[in-house]
Amino acid sequence: MPETLHARVEACYQQAEAFFKRTFARPTVSFRLRGQKAGVAHLTENLLRFNAQLYQENREDFLRQTVPHEVAHLVAHQLFGLRIQPHGEEWQLIMRGVYELPPSRCHTYAVKRRQVSRFIYRCTCADGEFPFSAQRHALVGKGRRYLCRRCKATLTFSGEQRSE
């Protein structure tokens, strides 16, 4: 799997070097990205992170669109510096001029949402419930308090947990 993507990253850099008639430092490539993003370019670290799951599920479009999209961010940074907008005219110039691709900001890949646990908190004044994330629930365990907006009483854990 990674060899094809690495080869595409290299091809994108060679295209940019031929277009701009200069060399660019190659990035470190990582497949440790999860969630909804297909790729992320870390400009100051010269690092590309890709979502392996989305790559496997959308290989052709990923190689055609996502890889050049992220490489264009690093190329734009090396050419124009940090003061440019992430999807501004410099990045768009590279997408259109170098890669001959539409400068699309977002992918349209289907992203499977993982199940999350919700911890149900309640207040004495209302019969409403307040679903807390696992992170927020853990903060309560460490002493953080959350207050009801209506009566300002401390929300308390009901003992109920749900998966969404």
From TrEMBL:
InterPro entries: SprT-like_domain
Pfam families, per the entry: SprT-like
Source species of the chain: Pseudomonas cuatrocienegasensis
Membrane-spanning segments: none
SprT-like domain residues: 7-158
NCBIfam families noted in UniProt: PRK04860.1
The protein's name in its UniProt record: SprT protein
